[in-house]
Amino acid sequence: MKIIYIVILLSISGCAHIDYAPSVNPHTALSDIVTKYALNSSALTCEGVSAVNCLALVHELNQLMLEHPNNKVILSVSAYALYKSGRANQAQSVINKLLNLPNPPLNALSLGINLAIEQGNLAKAKQIAQYAIDEFGTEASPYLQMASIYYAQGHYVIAANYLELAYKFGTHKSHYYYHKGLIAEATPDNALACHYYNEAIGFDAQHSQATARYAKLSVLGNCKS
């Protein structure tokens, strides 16, 4: 199954034992955690030289969830943390709770879509994506994720139409051209795919996926300099 992963997410690791220590204010407490682990300054990673202490981070987020079990911001950050630390089942549990609360935030819906895609449940992914479009119709990400679902199902024309909507509402040009390349390659039109991958690289020289696919097609003689 071909799947476009669109992902805009954080990362972390879980903890079995939680020491309960009430915090003063949920928003202040969460802001302190965000600052402490520099969650706003760069993509969170649990491995490598720039890794943070994800075990400690999840420990603190778990405590906040105990104190404020229906706070959607805390639940959202915690779900992403659990997901990126490899604890998809725990992340799914938190996402399920968020989806049952009124007005779940867009980032929670995005993660719910990704989890459903990874589980092969494209019907559920499509249902959540449609809800995200209905509620956040001027945001690019739900259209991009809907494009990924139709791409995974082999419905390339519909996928391309959703991709155009994502572009209209501001998706980054590197993402736009990369996904156009994927659709072109699947149709198949490898020469056109090369062009789109090259465009994606032009807008983001660090786009590793576009670079890898362009290199593969170049080796096969499909790309002209």
In short:
With 225 residues, the protein is mainly alpha-helical. Helix content is 63%, strand content 0%.
Largest sheet data: none
Poorly predicted runs: 1-20
| Secondary-structure arrangement, i.e. CATH architecture of the domain at 1-128 | Alpha Horseshoe
Distance N to C terminus: 31 Å
Structural class: mainly alpha
**Sequence of secondary-structure elements:** HHHHHHHHHHH
Strand content: under 5%
Helical coverage, percent range: 55-70%
Architecture overview:
There is one protein chain. The chain has a domain at 1-128: Serine Threonine Protein Phosphatase 5, Tetratricopeptide repeat (Alpha Horseshoe). It is built from 11 helices and no strands. The protein has helices at 26-36, 54-67, 72-84, 88-99, 106-118, 122-135, 141-152, 156-168, 173-186, 190-203, 208-219. The chain is globular. The protein starts with 25 loop residues before the first helix and ends in a 6-residue tail after the last helix. InterPro entries: TPR-like_helical_dom_sf (IPR011990). This is TPR repeat-containing protein. Residues 1-18 form the signal peptide.
Helix/strand layout:
Blueprint (H helix, E strand, L loop, with lengths): L25 H11 L17 H14 L4 H13 L3 H12 L6 H13 L3 H14 L5 H12 L3 H13 L4 H14 L3 H14 L4 H12 L6
Helix pairs in contact: 1-2, 2-3, 3-4, 4-5, 5-6, 5-7, 6-7, 7-8, 8-9, 9-10, 10-11
